[in-house]
Structures are given as structure tokens and as C-alpha cells.
Backbone:
């Protein structure tokens, strides 16, 4: 379910959050699917249970997963698609720098949009 | 909750455990690490009530463990070296456990044996170290204890058995919410199951914290110095260890923050990238740096004597 990049400077818990979300978006994981418990995933990925717990807390906060006591952890029933204003601002800022790089390499708006379209489609097609 | 409160234990005049406190909550796995002769096994033997602590208390939900069979029934213990009645077969041993422990779950034992595959009709004296370890783990878990104390439980196990052992252990913790205290030198193994750790050194507690905090104490960095790192970089007080392949330097530093990254860049680093550090590496570096600072202070002592 999750492939970690130990060499990356991105914190491991963020990698887990990101990949679970990506799997949900691609519909590899559907609502109601059981995902491994904190300890099982920690054992599988050879990382500390605390790190997995942190990732699961974040996913729960974002209502991507839900934990049912005594039963386990599942992908949430209905995943609400509501934009988080703060996050959107953050992303906009990131895009700004990346776009500048592309522009410096001579990409025009059309080319950029095509690229965005490609990435977007990659994410939603299963 | 299993509480160890300010426990001291000495053999004749040698202090083996000094003022150690720790708590294991239900559903928690607590790791006990430390170099040889740090006092781990002595502490464990006090915890399960084999030794009486010289000072301090060991409490199971507020009740003392020592000389208290009612409580001891609820505590499973796998020793570093397990001996059973030599001439008994596994089935006879199971029969004995059933008599001693009313809560003994024979079905569970049989389920476990599907995994661990011990010949039940063979005498225990013919077993290897690893087989005895499997037997001890299976018997103690089948007692359905509330707490499980494991002393170096992976020693003697082959890689397949080790992986299965960890799997079965976390199943027990998850399903029955048992608390586990586990000592081991297999730090890779501990890292992926422990919630918190106690690090012992010279019979005392050196560090006690959650595994997360422990891991963030030191930071491993990949740093690129295109012209090579100058002596100044080697002499930075935060740097505990540094090595390089060409212009890529791997260093282990303490108190890593943005300021330190900036400092490295001032010294000519073109890339500073923090990477994950393993518990094993962390332990080795901490132990080494301790040795070094001790050597430094010894040197100071020597020079102080000379001055006098």
C-alpha cells in the first residue's frame, strides 16, 4: 500500500499520508476498505509505530480514514471534497516557484496547462 | 499498569541496578536497551519477582509482584535462557502448564505450533536453543497474561521464526491489549514495534522517552561539499560522526536545525539533506560519543594531576 523513500528528506509520516491519499484518489483504495493497523504497517515498513500513528492521526483529521474500536482502520465512508483555504494558499505559493522555473525554460501557458492536465489525469484514472 | 519504582539491586557489593523507574501501560510495547552488563536482565528478574529488589517497588495495578502468585499468574516471562524439565516432552510440559495456570489456553498453543512447528512428542532435552525459545514464548503467551516480559527473545531464532515472532507478538498486543517489556540487542526489530524505550548504561537509566523522540535526538545528514569539507566542519561541536565518499559527506549531528544547515552552507556545503537514522546507528553513536567525552574528561584529570 505504501512505498517509502528512506533517502528522501520528506518526513516519513508525510509520505504515508500522501500515498494513502493518492491511493484513495486513484480508487485503488475504496471507502470501507480495511487498511493495516498501526502496528502491522510499522512492522511491514520497518518504522516506529509512533510514526505510523502520527500519519493515521493526520489522515483521520482530514477524514480520509476512520478507526472503529475493536474492528480496525478503514477508508472513510464518504470522503468530503472541501478545499482547505490555508492549504490552497500554501500550494499556490509552491506552484509559483515551480511555474517560474518552467517559464525560464521557455514553457508557455499552453504547454504548462497540458502538463497539468496530464498529471491530473494520471491521478484520477484507475 | 506495571510500575517499576526506584528499583535498586546489588549482588554482594556490585550494584547491578540503581534507581530505575519505568512504567508499562496495557497495549504498549516498551523496549529496554543497553550494552552488555548494563543491568537489563537483573531489572527484568526483579520485575517478574525472581529477585527481591533491595530498594523500590514493583507494582501490578498497585499490588506488589514479589511473592504474590495471584499477580505472577498474570505476568508472562520469557527468559534469555529457558530450561524445562529435561525428560518431559512438549505435550507433557503443556499438561503441566494447564495444571498450574487455570487460564492456560491450549488451543492457542496449538495454533501457535502450527506456525512454530515444534515436535510435540520429542523430549525437550533434544531441543536446540532456538526451539527452546519458541517453546518458552508459546507457553508464556498461552497463559494469556496481561503483561509479557521478554528478555532477549529473538536470540537463537532464525530469520523466518523471528519475523513470525514479531507478527504473533503484535497480534497479541493488538487483540488483547497486553503490555510488553522487551529487552533486545536486535535494535532493527525493536525499532518497528516499540512505542517507547529505556536505555540503560552502567546500571542506571540513561534515557527514557518515546521512540519518536529518541529517533529525533540525533539527525543524519547527507551533505555535499564540492571542494571537500574543511577542518572547521570536522571541528563543529554538533558533529558526532562524519565520513565521505568523494564530495558527498554523511554526518551524524545533534541539535540539528535550520541555523546549523546555514552554518554548513557558510562552510561551503552546496546541499544539506536530512535522512532517516536507524535506532541501531543512533545507539552506536550515542555510546561512542559517551566513551569519547569520558576519555576527554579522563585526559583533563590527567593534565590536572600533572599541573599539580
Residues:
Amino acid at each position: 500500500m505504501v512505498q517509502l523513500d528512506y533517502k528522501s528528506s520528506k518526513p516519513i509520516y508525510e509520505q504515508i499520508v500522501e500515498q494513502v491519499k493518492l491511493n484513495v484518489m486513484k480508487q485503488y483504495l475504496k471507502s470501507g476498505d480495511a487498511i493495516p493497523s498501526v502496528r502491522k504497517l510499522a512492522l511491514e515498513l520497518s518504522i516506529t509505530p509512533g510514526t505510523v500513528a502520527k500519519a493515521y492521526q493526520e489522515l483521520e483529521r482530514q477524514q480520509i480514514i476512520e478507526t472503529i474500536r475493536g474492528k480496525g482502520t478503514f477508508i472513510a465512508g464518504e470522503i468530503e471534497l472541501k478545499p482547505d483555504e490555508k492549504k490552497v494558499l500554501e500550494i499556490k505559493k509552491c506552484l509559483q516557484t515551480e511555474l517560474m522555473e518552467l517559464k525560464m525554460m521557455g514553457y508557455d501557458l499552453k504547454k504548462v496547462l497540458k502538463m497539468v492536465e496530464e498529471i491530473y489525469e494520471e491521478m484520477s484514472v484507475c | 499498569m506495571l510500575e517499576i519504582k526506584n528499583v535498586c539491586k546489588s549482588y554482594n557489593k556490585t550494584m547491578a541496578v540503581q534507581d530505575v523507574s519505568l512504567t508499562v501501560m496495557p497495549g504498549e510495547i516498551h523496549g529496554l536497551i543497553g550494552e552488555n552488563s548494563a543491568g537489563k536482565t537483573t531489572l527484568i528478574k526483579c520485575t517478574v519477582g525472581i529477585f527481591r529488589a533491595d530498594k523500590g517497588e514493583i507494582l501490578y495495578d498497585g499490588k506488589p509482584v514479589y511473592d504474590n502468585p495471584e499477580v505472577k499468574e498474570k505476568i508472562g516471562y520469557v527468559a534469555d535462557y529457558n530450561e524445562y524439565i529435561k525428560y518431559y516432552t512438549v505435550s507433557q510440559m503443556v499438561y503441566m502448564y494447564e495444571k498450574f495456570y487455570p487460564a492456560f489456553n491450549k488451543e492457542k498453543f496449538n495454533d501457535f505450533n502450527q506456525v512454530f512447528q515444534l515436535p510435540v512428542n520429542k523430549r525437550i532435552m533434544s531441543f536446540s536453543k532456538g526451539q527452546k525459545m519458541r517453546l518458552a514464548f508459546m507457553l508464556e503467551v498461552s497463559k494469556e497474561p496481561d503483561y509479557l516480559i521478554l528478555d532477549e527473545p529473538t536470540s537463537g531464532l532464525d530469520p523466518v521464526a523471528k519475523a513470525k515472532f514479531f507478527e504473533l507478538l503484535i497480534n497479541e498486543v493488538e487483540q488483547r491489549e497486553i503490555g510488553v517489556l522487551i529487552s533486545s540487542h536486535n535494535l532493527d526489530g525493536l525499532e518497528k514495534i516499540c512505542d517507547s524505550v529505556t536505555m540503560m548504561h552502567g546500571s542506571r537509566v540513561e534515557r527514557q522517552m518515546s521512540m519518536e523522540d529518541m529517533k529525533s535526538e540525533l539527525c543524519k545528514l547527507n551533505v555535499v561539499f564540492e571542494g571537500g569539507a574543511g577542518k572547521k566542519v570536522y571541528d563543529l561541536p554538533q558533529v558526532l560522526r562524519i565520513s565521505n565518499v568523494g564530495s558527498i559527506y554523511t554526518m551524524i549531528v545533534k541539535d540539528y536545525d535550520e541555523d546549523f544547515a546555514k552554518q554548513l552552507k557558510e562552510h561551503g556545503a552546496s546541499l544539506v539533506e536530512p535522512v532517516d537514522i536507524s535506532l541501531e546507528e543512533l545507539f552506536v553513536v550515542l555510546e561512542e560519543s559517551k566513551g569519547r567525552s569520558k576519555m576527554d574528561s579522563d585526559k583533563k584529570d590527567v593534565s590536572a594531576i600533572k599541573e599539580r
Q: What stands out?
A: Chain A has five helices and three strands. Chain A touches chain B at residues 6-9, 12, 37, 39-40, 42-43, 45-51, 54 (CB under 8 Å). Chain A has a mean pLDDT of 86.
